[in-house]
From TrEMBL, chain A:
GO terms of molecular function: maltose binding
Keyword line: Signal, Transport
UniProt family annotation: Belongs to the bacterial solute-binding protein 1 family.
Native species: Planotetraspora mira
Transport found in the keyword field: yes
Protein name, UniProt field: ABC transporter substrate-binding protein
Pfam families in the cross-refs: SBP_bac_8
Source taxon at top rank: Bacteria
Signal peptide (residue range): 1-21
Family matches, as PROSITE patterns: PROKAR_LIPOPROTEIN
TrEMBL record, chain B:
ABC transmembrane type-1 domain boundaries: 83-309
Organism phylogeny: Bacteria, Bacillati, Actinomycetota, Actinomycetes, Streptosporangiales
PANTHER family: ABC TRANSPORTER PERMEASE PROTEIN (PTHR30193), ABC TRANSPORTER PERMEASE PROTEIN YESP-RELATED (PTHR30193:SF1)
Family named by the database record: Belongs to the binding-protein-dependent transport system permease family.
Protein name according to UniProt: Sugar ABC transporter permease
Biological process (GO), any one: transmembrane transport
Membrane-topology descriptor: Multi-pass membrane protein
CDD domains found in the cross-reference section: TM_PBP2
Keywords, sorted A to Z: Cell membrane, Membrane, Transmembrane, Transmembrane helix, Transport
């Protein structure tokens, strides 16, 4: 029996070694002088699934085919990050993969899930610092590795319903926003909300702290990765403002109203239906309104800023879709050709931007005369170009940090945790403890 | 005599030991499918889990960190919140399910007319897929648009925000568990129908009331089934995941889109269960080493309840004998 146990343990350790052996990494092979145009088929996984997105993507890939006729792209739609990670673990990844979120970029780089693209950029003589706005560096790189490239960007601003605004101009400060929100709100005889001027709670669709923190210039982390939340008075300014306005509505009333909303991504979005006069949203909403509520008379503006930060008006939050070459890709050179095309080719970015109304992510594409620019979309192009616009820098615990902050915010705005200082100190503690667990001291 | 015996043994021993070895090998050969299965699907994962619990493991890179993951467990507020919630479900939901299941089974076995219809009605919900059932409950109980509030509102009652208020969210999940009681009802029905009728007849002749018949006859006879339901209920509840995850996600309004992070346990961590936190740490936060610590703790607790179950059954078997 003892011998059997020893044998089992040895077999277990052997298997374990075999499994973990796959975690070793190897430097990518790059041959910039490769002139071989042997036909090659590459696998491309992306997350797009809506019909208009797929059509736009197909049009863009046709443009790629004209430039690189020897490369056939086999695209797979509606892929999530989990599937990409599992494919890399299983040793059978696609050649190119696209992720909708920048939350995993640090992990992608740290664990070499995606290859470092700096050698590819050097080999292709591409200077990223002049091609992309500086803020993009923060969400496509981690610890000196650029393991993904930006493919289109998202920026956030304020949408307002012109009819419900009753001639008022969009607010520029938080005080103006609160005053206007109260003025535009309509309640029935029982005090239930029929139309809200602005829904201030963090649980409202795009009001997550990652987006609204920019209104007060709030900081998430220090350069060493530890939490800056408790020590930054900007968070207190934002949360106090949100709570005051929430209390004016009554938390129960605003929650009941929020829970009557239709799906964010459907035609029943409360902004489309005239249930809210003003809402924070991304630039993509322009395309959705055009498709779902073409008669809606609306305008767009930058998000309001803290009363004492008027000079920052015009800035917003920037993030975007990222794309890269997973570790173990079978055709890395052809994969790089596709990544390069989708992220640096002006006509590709303009085609995609015009079709799905995302912000093109290179400076030349932003200046392209072919880019469709109507006033409502221009707002977001301006936010993208604004030097005060910020992003959430890549962090190894990016999603955890946001969850922790949002959880604290829900407790605060609901009135279930009355001590704001204690709550934010607790956020610091949790973020810092988690950092020790995942990244070491 | 002694010498002769020794001599005989001395000659027979090598033959017998060869026989025994051959028999052992044959037994091992017969057992080999099970041994391979045990090794690959249980022993190896278990050894790996223990090994990874001492590593910083993000599913790609390994770094030995000693007891860091284990120490973090004691400082991890979310883990303790999830333990408290899981314990609440074990203490409240499991007994309520057993009592409700037994009550419903009693009723439908006693029905003279329409028994088949009622049995079907009570059993049907347990055939509804868990995700669909949970979605349905969250929509029905939605305080903004749900029909339950519409009906209650008509008579002037404001229903609680079942899945949006931490004071009510676990009760909402309990309600859902009681709705899908069909599985337990069937087990209890089988047990109740198995109680000898003559015991009730004798008790009735002695003037025993219905309650006395239930406590003195029914319960003692079906005790093994009640015990089985309770212990398997505890083991299942220790793995409670889907309903809590779906209810929290739908109630929070979190969407699966870039920039939108979903925190399991909404609201305020009140529905966060231990397996949910394990999943979150391992597969969302890339802290697989720490998730292994959580997995080992869950394994140990589940094992304790499994042993209790086995011991009880041994006890019942001895009683029967």
């Amino acid at each position: 029996m003892k011998r059997l146990l020893v044998l089992s343990a040895a077999a277990g350790l052997f298997l374990m070694t075999a499994c973990t052996a796959g975690t070793e990494t190897s430097a990518p092979k790059i041959d910039p002088s490769a002139t071989s145009h042997e036909p090659v088929t590459i696998e491309f996984w992306h997350g797009f699934s809506a019909d208009n997105e797929l059509k736009a993507f197909q049009d863009t890939l046709e443009g790629f085919n004209k430039q690189y006729p020897w490369i056939t792209v086999k695209a797979t739609k509606a892929v999530q990050d989990d599937q990409i990670i599992q494919s890399v673990r299983g040793g059978n990844p696609p050649d190119v993969a696209l992720s909708f979120t920048t939350d995993s970029v640090a992990q992608f780089c740290k664990a070499n899930i995606f290859q470092d693209l700096n050698p590819y950029l050097t080999a292709s003589k591409i200077d990223a610092s002049t091609l992309f706005p500086k803020v993009i560096d923060q969400y496509t790189q981690y610890a000196g590795k650029r393991c993904v490239m930006p493919m289109l960007a998202d920026t956030y601003g304020l949408y307002y319903n012109k009819k419900l605004m009753k001639g008022n101009e969009p607010p520029k400060t938080l005080s103006e926003l609160a005053d206007l929100a109260k003025k535009l709100t309509v309640k029935d005889s029982k005090g239930d909300i029929k139309v809200a001027g602005f829904v201030p709670t963090s649980q409202m669709y795009e009001n997550a702290p990652i987006h609204t923190g920019v209104m007060v210039g709030a900081k998430w982390t220090n350069p060493d990765g530890t939490s800056a939340v408790g020590g930054d008075p900007a968070w207190k300014t934002l949360l106090t403002w949100q709570k005051d306005l929430t209390d004016w509505y009554g938390y129960d009333k605003i929650e009941k109203f929020r829970k009557s909303f239709g799906d964010e991504w459907s035609a029943d979005n409360p902004f489309n239906k005239g249930q809210v006069a003003m809402a924070v949203d991304g630039e993509w909403r322009n395309a959705m309104i055009a498709a779902d509520a073409p008669d809606l008379d609306y305008g767009t503006a930058p998000m309001p800023v803290a009363d004492d930060q008027a000079q920052r008006y015009g800035a917003g939050f920037i993030a975007g879709t990222v794309i890269g070459i997973p570790r173990g890709a079978k055709n890395p050179e052809a994969a790089w050709d596709l990544v390069k095309y989708l992220t640096t080719d002006t006509s590709a970015l303009v085609t995609l931007s015009n079709a799905i109304r995302n912000v093109p992510s290179t400076l030349p594409a932003l200046q392209s005369p072919d880019l469709k620019k109507d006033p409502n979309f221009q707002t977001f192009l301006d936010i993208f170009a604004n030097p005060n616009s910020t992003t959430l820098p890549a962090h190894i615990n990016s999603a955890f940090n946001q969850q922790t902050m949002q959880e604290a915010q829900i407790k605060w705005e609901s009135g279930r945790a009355p001590d704001l200082n204690g709550l934010l100190a607790d956020v610091d503690k949790k973020i810092n403890e988690k950092l020790k667990l995942t990244a070491g001291d | 005599m002694a010498t002769a015996t020794l001599g005989r043994r001395g000659k027979a021993a090598p033959f017998r030991s060869r026989e025994r070895r051959r028999a052992n090998l044959r037994a091992l050969l017969y057992l080999s499918p099970w041994l391979v299965g045990f090794g690959v699907f249980f022993a190896y994962p278990l050894i790996s889990t223990v090994y990874f619990s001492f590593q910083r493991y993000d599913m790609f890179t390994l770094e030995p960190v000693g007891l860091l993951n284990w120490k973090y467990f004691f400082r991890d507020d979310a883990a303790w919140t999830s333990i408290k919630n899981t314990l609440w479900l074990v203490v409240v939901m499991v007994p309520l399910r057993v009592v409700f299941g037994l009550g419903v089974a009693q009723l439908v076995t006693k029905l003279k007319a329409g028994a088949g219809v009622f049995r079907t009605i009570f059993y049907l919900p347990s055939l509804v897929p868990v995700v669909a059932g949970t979605l349905g409950f969250v929509y029905l109980l939605n305080p903004g648009t749900g029909p339950v509030q519409a009906i209650l509102g008509a008579v002037g009652i404001q229903s609680p925000d079942w899945f949006g208020d931490p004071a009510w969210s676990k009760w909402g999940l309990t309600l859902l568990a009681l709705w899908s009681i069909g599985d337990l009802m069937v087990i209890f029905m089988a047990a109740l129908l198995d109680v000898p009728k003559q015991l009730y007849e004798a008790a009735a002749l002695d003037g025993a009331s219905a309650w006395q018949q239930f406590t003195r006859i029914t319960l003692p006879v079906i005790r093994p089934v009640v015990m089985f339901s309770a212990v398997t209920g505890v083991i299942q509840t220790l793995q409670y995941f889907t309903q809590a995850m779906v209810a929290a996600r739908v109630a929070s309004g979190a969407t699966d889109s870039a920039g939108s992070v979903f925190t399991p346990g909404y609201p305020d961590g009140s529905t966060l269960t231990f397996p949910e936190w394990l999943f979150q740490e391992g597969f969302r936060d890339f802290a697989m080493g720490y998730a292994c610590v959580l997995a080992l703790i869950l394994f140990a607790v589940s094992m304790i309840f499994t042993l209790i179950l086995l011991r009880q059954f041994r006890g019942f078997a001895e009683e029967e004998a």
